[in-house]
Specification:
The chain is built from twelve helices and 15 strands. With 358 residues, it is an alpha/beta fold. Strands 2, 3, 4, 5, 6, 7, 8, 9, 11, 14 and 15 form an eleven-stranded mixed β-sheet that branches. A two-stranded antiparallel sheet has the order 1-10. It has a two-stranded antiparallel ribbon with strand order 12-13. The C terminus is likely disordered. The structure holds zinc ion.
Length: 358
């Protein structure tokens, strides 16, 4: 995460979902993915080199260990900078989902949280998906020099042809994980993504909430958002933990291992779900909804206006194939409670997918 040094405050939104329980729904079926063991995910995090060039080598080594090699593993030289590491997991189509995590670090601290926590998770996510046949092509990228202003991701995006850009259906950016349970931020085009990952989290009994880091910093997702690509930033930063980033406290001790592994499990399940459900039509529809970033400063009613369809109560209706039929954001936990009370029917179960103030 790079930082804007001025206003260091975070905005927290309470994500809530109402999920229809329908045994015939695809959502209830088991997702097929390989779950890398907690010890392995932890070891990959713990073996965190300090120099950026060593981090790049280590990331390549981890990719090779999980089977990403030869023509599928590349280094992309970045103008006036270092190298992006790019591992491609081919699918039957060119339809592409990008999972990014910068591997460089700020000067202070070990950079375990920011962002070896993201970069070292990429090979484990590759492993989660590699054994099954895929329709989508997944591209895992360890971007360089994010801290200097998204240099690696800007270069990557620039290097793409018009056709290649059009094939990118979604971008998921992992930045600074493991400080707390999973936090999400997204652009408007990524609304379906956040509904879906929150639905997956609910099914797994995991917590997620929306925390907007854009006032204090940003990430490589922004390079993709500029193209109108649906983008989701996955992080763990809260108001209380913010000071850890770019300080000497950014080390292994700052990581809450259980939360970190939960974020891994959620991402692995979410990617396998995305693989199965996100088709070209979805992506086109989502893209057409525009590129404006969801603003954290809006009032409650305005929050709801971010969504496309509302019921009489002002709650959002979204016909997702996932079975997540109602979703939205509220500014306070009381609002979540109120909305759940108003919007649930006998067949709907309300789930408050957020707990603890940011
Ligand atoms: Zn950073």
């Amino acid at each position: 995460m790079f930082s804007h040094h001025s206003k260091r405050t975070l905005n927290c939104l309470w994500l809530f979902l109402i999920v229809w329980i329908n045994p015939s729904d695809a959502f209830a079926q088991t997702l097929n993915y390989f779950k890398v063991k907690a010890e392995i995910v932890e070891t990959r995090l713990e073996t965190c080199p300090s120099r950026i060039s060593e981090r790049r080598e280590r990331l390549k080594q981890l990719f090779m260990e999980v089977g990403c090699q030869g023509p599928y593993l590349k280094e992309q030289r970045v103008r006036r900078s270092r190298f992006n590491v790019i591992c491609t997991l081919e699918g039957e189509s060119d339809s592409t989902i990008i999972i990014g995590a910068h591997h460089d670090k700020a000067r202070n601290g070990d950079g375990v949280v920011d962002n070896w926590s993201g970069a070292s998770l990429l090979p484990s996510l590759y492993e989660a998906l590699k054994s099954d046949q895929r329709q989508h092509t997944f591209v895992f990228i360890g971007f360089t020099d994010e801290e200097k202003g998204l240099i690696g991701s800007k270069h990557f995006v620039k290097s793409l042809s018009k056709e290649e850009k059009e094939e990118i259906k979604a971008m998921i950016n992992l930045d600074s994980l493991g400080l707390s349970y999973t936090k999400l931020w997204w652009n408007e085009a990524g609304q379906d993504m956040v509904n879906t990952i929150a639905g997956v989290a609910d099914q797994m009994g995991l917590e997620v909430s929306g925390v907007d880091p854009s006032r204090v910093g940003g990430g490589d997702n922004e390079s993709f958002e500029k193209l109108g690509i649906p983008a989701l930033m996955v992080h763990s930063v809260t108001e209380e933990k913010l000071k850890i980033l770019h300080s000497r406290h950014d080390n292994l001790k700052a990581i809450q291992m259980d939360d970190y592994y939960d974020t891994y499990r959620l991402l692995a399940a979410y990617l396998s779900y995305l693989e199965r459900t996100r088709n070209d039509e979805d992506a086109t529809r989502v893209r057409a909804e525009g590129q404006r970033r969801a603003s954290p400063t809006l009032g409650r009613n305005d929050d709801l206006a971010l969504f496309t369809r509302k019921d009489d109560e002002g709650f959002v209706l979204d016909d997702l194939p996932s079975g997540v039929t109602v979703a939205g954001v509220a500014r306070r936990p009381e609002d979540v409670a109120a909305s759940v009370r108003d919007a649930t029917g006998a067949a709907a179960r309300a789930v408050i997918a957020a707990a603890g103030r940011s």
